[in-house]
Amino acid sequence: MNKRTERRKKIEHAFEEFRETVGLALGAAARDHSRAAVAHARSMFELWIRQTGVTTAVDDPAFRRCLDNPLLKPVIQQALDEYQGIFTGWTGQGPLELHRLVTEAAPGPAGEPWQTWLGHAGQRDGSGDVPGLWRVGSAVIDRAPEREEFPAAVPLLDESHLSFSSTPETRAQIEGTVEGLLLRLISYFQPGTVQLHVWDVAQLTGALPGLYPLARAGLLTVHDPARLHELLDEFAEHIRRIHTSVLVDGRPSLRAVADATGKRSEPWRVAVLFGNRTALEEQLQQKLQRIARNGLACGIQLILVDLPITVNSPLETIRVGKDGVIRGSMTGPHASVTLDPQLPREQVTRACGAISEALLERRSRVCTFDDLLPEVRWTGTSASGLEAPIGYHDGEPVSMIIGDASPHVLVGGPSGSGKTNFLYAMLGALVSRYSPDELELYLLDFKEGVSFAQFTPGRKDPSWLPHARLVGVNVNADREFGLALLKFLADEMRRRADAAKHHEVTKLEELRAEDPSGRWPRIVAVIDEFQYLFAERDAVTSRAVGLLEDVARRGRSQGIHLVLSSQDVSGIEAFWGKPAIFEQFVLRVALPKARRVLAETNMAAMEVPRRHAVINHDSGVRHGNEIARVPDATSKGTFDALQLELWQRRTENLPEPLLFDGEKVPRLSTVDDFAELGPGAVVPTALLGQVIDVSGSAAKVRLLRSPGRNIAAIGSVARDATSVLGAAALSLSRQHDPGDADFTVAYLTEDATESAKALADELTAAGHGVDVIDLDGIRAKLDGLAEGLNTRLSGTCAETPRPHYVLLYAIDAAYPLLEQKNPATRQSGLDTMKFVLKHGPEFGTHVIGWWRSAQRLKSSLIGGALDDIGSWVALDVHGQELSSLAAGQIISWAPRPRRGLFFDRFEHAKPEVVIPFDITGGQ
Ligand SMILES: Nc1ncnc2c1ncn2[C@@H]1O[C@H](COP(=O)(O)OP(=O)(O)OP(=O)(O)O)[C@@H](O)[C@H]1O
């Protein structure tokens, strides 16, 4: 091969190499380009997936084409792996856990499907656990790898308000959800525990028609579209009331009170307000905001539908988006909610009907007297007050509290409205809770009839009420008895105040703490038909008003409480004229159609049905109204059975209550003051009758050996006058040993004969010397007495004079005889009588005489001799005839049967009423 050829080959080879090298370089570049292009495509693809979301991307048809591209597959796979990785904690676990939580927080009708509860009335009373959540539907997390459902629920009652916003297309669906939610609420609790209020801006009726049967039982109120302000005002007032009367001890909410006391005292009020997507006018908006802010603590729950509002309180929302997707604040923005389907209309109506029925039935269930009584008797302590149920409302007890905040009670209602029955129910509830050491009762009934008499032992029923210390019946003619009771209470109040002062405290509660061994029961004084006490414009009324004012104002701190009952409070001028008294009667009880017991604008008593009462612890203002059905407490087997049971429980040493029966004439022999008399008295005391006081004491005249100690019975009523003389003689007789006293019994008219002789027989039987004389012997007797006194006056007799009681029956009948003068001495028999009256007492000779008129007494005792009658009992004699016998004071006294006016110049400032004793048939 030549050189040329060789060189050529070399060149060709070099070119070959060059080409090869260029080819290699170009191939590598193309490969790099293609690799970069794939990487870029993958990155772009990944970016797109990330931006769109892998789950959305997977659903995109354009995207689906890329799924087959093997170059992009790994990108998808990686995104899907990552996405699955993110949900590993959720898938399978999350929804299950939510199921568990909601089942726990929303038990029974709060969360279960309607088939298990719709149509049955709930049993829970709201005091125990309240569901934390209430189901509205289900939800799914939009982008979860598995579309696993979980329940969607919202907190309600006490926790949060709820707001829905819908689209026009979904409004009906939202209404269905609201209906379902409300049914869950009312089916969970006892009927009455949740009350519904519905307001729809657009329509008078229409919203939630399935619930209308609830209105029958007052569980649902549909409000007028134009009157939202009324509903809001009502709620605002409710909030105020709860704050001023229930949340008074620092507890922040009704829920807190229920947790502490174990009792939900107020129903929940749920207001469902349907709007039209425009805001309310400013004023309503503000009211609604205030209610939203303060309502939850007071049991008010708002459910708003399409009512735009911003609130500064917990508010859950459920909104339907423009895309039709429903989202809730509980489930968050990534979950779409499927609301539970609307409940079948027919079943809803039927269920609401059944719930209403259940409530009406429970309300009408006759709560019995026994329902008012505690299972265990006498366990209550009255240190800080008295509290007892007196009736029921919606099956729940309604209590009354007598204590520092509501010390006195005013009960009103027309005749037949049930006042007496109410008082029995109240007393039954109290006496079964508090023992006689905790509570004492003073019971006064001005009504004709003897309704309180059953508290004392009777002939048929020996039992008596252990708490009763005093029972007054048939006292309408004896207003003085009301006065006596008030006086007793005022005295007791002072005694307690002194004891408190001694222990350096001011109130009964503190006194009891300082003096634990002392007996300081609360005292409740009940005066039925108390208007009789103020019936006249006289001294009794003015004294009663003064005492009542004192007790009403100061009794509260000393544990002395008044319960005044009347058929017509408005007629009691004396009472109304004294607002200071009236204000103290904070607790008002109005029976049906009662007038003026409650505040003037409070008409509740006009609407309350028979056998119900309005109980108001707020001086009768409207927001304090509580309605109670009062059980029958007067039929056989109610109060009487309780009394028998408590009577058997009483301690041995408990004394019987004192009975004052205005219709009964007290027997001398049964009076304590008589029984206590015995021989050896330093100053003999004559008992003339029973005075009207709380201890049933006798009118006493101490027969000192001093001038003026003679006694006159004045008036024409033989029965009463002879009683006065007889009781005086018999009581004096007991104070002398047989034979130690002399009695003269002079009967000078026919109608005195029988009683005078009977008395003489009794005195003789007691062993005393008795000289019985008639008209024939009177002059000689008086002359003899005068002679004896003369001897003593002249000092010729040194013997101690014997007590001598001279009983002159109708002495004025002997005046014609006595007026004749003794020709020798020029003295008349009347002069002799005056002499005996004047000088007798100093020597133990006391005249106890009956003059048949005041005029006759006065005419025979002219010239200062009237002063020798130091004490008297006037019977059918008018007040003005008596002034000269009572140091000239004006005496207002209108005679009344079986009553006398007693005055003892040496003891009394004013006369007092007495009841002449029954002394017939011996003591
Ligand atoms: N809650 C009730 N349940 C059953 N019966 C009742 C109830 N309240 C009242 N009664 C009955 O109604 C009647 C009248 O009641 P009550 O005597 O208590 O009325 P009142 O207002 O005291 O009437 P009055 O002033 O005329 O005496 C009585 O027969 C009583 O038994």
UniProtKB/TrEMBL annotation:
One of its GO terms (molecular function) is DNA binding. InterPro entries: FtsK/SpoIIIE/SftA, FtsK_dom, P-loop_NTPase. It comes from the Bacteria. The keyword Nucleotide-binding applies. ATP binds at G413, P414, S415, G416, S417, G418, K419, T420. CDD domains: TrwB_TraG_TraD_VirD4. PROSITE patterns: FTSK. Residues 395-600 form the FtsK domain. SUPFAM superfamilies: P-loop containing nucleoside triphosphate hydrolases. Keywords: ATP-binding, Nucleotide-binding. PANTHER family: DNA TRANSLOCASE FTSK (PTHR22683:SF41), SPORULATION PROTEIN RELATED (PTHR22683). This is FtsK/SpoIIIE family protein.
